[in-house]
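User: For my dataset I need records formatted as: sequence, then structure tokens, nothing else. Please produce one.
Assistant:
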Amino acid sequence: MFKIGFIGLGVMGEPMAANLLRKGYSVTVFNRTPGKADKLLELGANAAASPAAVARASELIITMISNDDSIREVYYGDNGLIGAIAPGTIVIDSSTISPALARQLHADISAKSGAFLDAPVTGSKPAAESGSLVFMVGGDLEVIRKVQDVLHTMGRKVIPMGPGGSGSTAKLAHNTIVGINVAALIEGMAIAASGGIDAKSFLELVQAGGAASKMAELKAPKLLDRDFSVQFSLALMLKDLRLASSLSDELKTPTPILEAVKSLYQVGDAMGLGELDLSALAQGYEQWINKRITNHSSVEDSVAAVD
């Protein structure tokens, strides 16, 4: 079995690493924020003091980090991965980053006689916990075959997407659809609420009809319970939509719906909703229609003002 290094122990990374430990892999972990590794250490993980230390202890390294700047810090910063990778090391990045940065990592790790896969995931926190993520992978097919058992420990499906950078491109296209779907669901709920339709009955209709979607299935219970704890944060969705917008500009692909929905998430972020689940976009609509979308009480009576 591979000796695995795991860097990035947030909402997604911690349960992914935990599944590897439960399967019996030796896992060395690092997180830039102290304390995030405590639960994994109880499961038997080894702690490292830097990304470089993770590289020196590992044959296979997985990173799950929030954005391009943080990836650059982990890979290229002081005591970063790139300077410590041994020949033959395989590195998998499951973050959502720009395809250009993913291609740069492919080139730079290949120059160190290592192999790199850009392998972002879909499924959010519940799928990370249950080991049912879907990996979309850019890179060499032979390398993908070598690590497929590791990926299947964390996910239910591994889909090769093409050469380096293809996994990141696929993820941005995919999350464009996700962001639009959630916004459409909430906007429809706002119309229904304004028209006096019971939210529970309306969501039953959505899931039984042509508007059904995976996002409706995941977010309906959260919306009805007013549970905005994070499965996937509004701020991260906005980050992904911005990356998708930049990519579409590079590809000269018109994306009018993406641009409109990106602006909507920017409004939500400006309202202070960024660190909540992306379904908290509902709170913006509630302010605009002056009532909850899950019942017919006024905002003044029922909805806490956004700080």
